[in-house]
Design brief:
homodimer, mainly alpha, 13 helices, 75% helix, globular, DNA-binding
DNA sequence: GTCTATATGGCGATAGAC
DNA sequence: GTCTATCGCCATATAGAC
């Protein structure tokens, strides 16, 4: 019945669930302990403090999903392929880890410095991506001339429906989980087509 | 020197600043009192509890900005004009109240129910917008066939650069405030062009 | 209206029994 | 490893002087 998982991992997974739903400040050690079915002290036994526990989760979340993304725009694919590859992988990560976008948006304004460092450590270097996009836009003489607008549009279209899910699902999907899952699954195709049309490469 | 504002309003404005930066849980009554230069007890004198104070701000933020938006898609403008009007006003609101998107994203997953009610009370009825968009997409035989994808793209493109500002400004604008302000100002034109191209109406 | 003082409770964290 | 008990702190909130 009870799958025998090591307590340490069980805590980490439970803490991730609670932290990603309520944010750092909205989460108490008691909440995590209760949900994990263990004692509060045990949390401190494994992870010395709330901040250390949170930090572990935070880093883990990033290192697990970001590394594959940094290289795409540094490769020598044609623009269309870069876009579709990036969107595919990016949205895939969120489909498999839907808590990430909400988590990021929630903590984003409290310590952007720290978040930015984590992202850089995970291998994302936006200035390189910008440089690469800029070259492509020129070479393939595309309508859009600001690579930063391009990048923000691209990422925004991928992240937003995941980050705002609780609200969107409730307001325009009658809070129907499965309907929203189907909606999200369709976004890979949707975003790629949308982006390619927008920059007039069809 | 000291502008003689009624204490009650002074508190409300200060509280808005703190709440919108740190979120509900990240804000303490002490922080608000300190920043407002008054005593903690005075907060309770004017607003009975932290929750009541927060509630006032929350409602106020919405009622002040949303009402103008609900009607746009219900009007009889042609599609292009609806898009550009909506984007213009929407982004204008955020340019004048840049804290709103971050605020919303931060509280969004804690109590989506409450947030959805506030938005409805403020006159936004997504189901009507969806219905209207759906008719337009059919009538003007446009590539995109799912009005919900259309709406999510539209709103995401408007909100995302504001919601993720702390991170984006730091990572791809060298944390240059003014440069990012210029970037945001350009987004009105950018988003409208982008949307119209994407649905192939130029 | 605005302050000081204080009540009450939950928080993160630790000590120590088992 | 896991628990109970408890410390010290800071949170929200209230009472009461001025």
């Amino acid at each position: 019945m009870k799958p025998k998982i090591r307590t340490e991992d069980h805590i980490l997974e439970t803490a991730r669930e609670v932290f990603t739903q309520y944010g750092y400040d909205g989460t108490s050690m008691q909440m995590i302990a209760d949900r994990a079915g263990i004692n509060k002290s045990l949390l401190h036994y494994y992870y010395r403090s709330k901040e250390k526990l949170f930090g572990q989760i935070f880093s883990r979340v990033f290192s697990q999903f970001i590394p594959h993304l940094g290289v795409i725009f540094m490769s020598d694919m044609p623009l269309e392929e870069k876009i579709s590859t990036f969107v595919d992988r990016y949205i895939d990560v969120f489909l498999n880890n839907p808590y990430i976008p909400i988590f990021v948006m929630q903590e984003l304004s409290k310590n952007p410095q720290h978040l930015a460092e984590l992202i850089r450590e995970a291998g994302i270097h936006p200035e390189l991506m910008i440089e690469n996009i800029s070259q492509m836009l020129n070479r393939e003489n595309i309508r859009m001339n600001d690579p930063r607008q391009f990048l923000v549009n691209l990422i925004g279209l991928c992240i937003f429906p995941f980050a705002a899910r609780p609200l969107i699902q409730r307001m325009i999907f009658d809070n129907d989980r499965e309907a929203y899952d189907r909606f999200l699954a369709e976004r890979k195709k949707e975003v790629v087509t949308f982006m390619l049309n927008a920059i007039q490469k069809t």
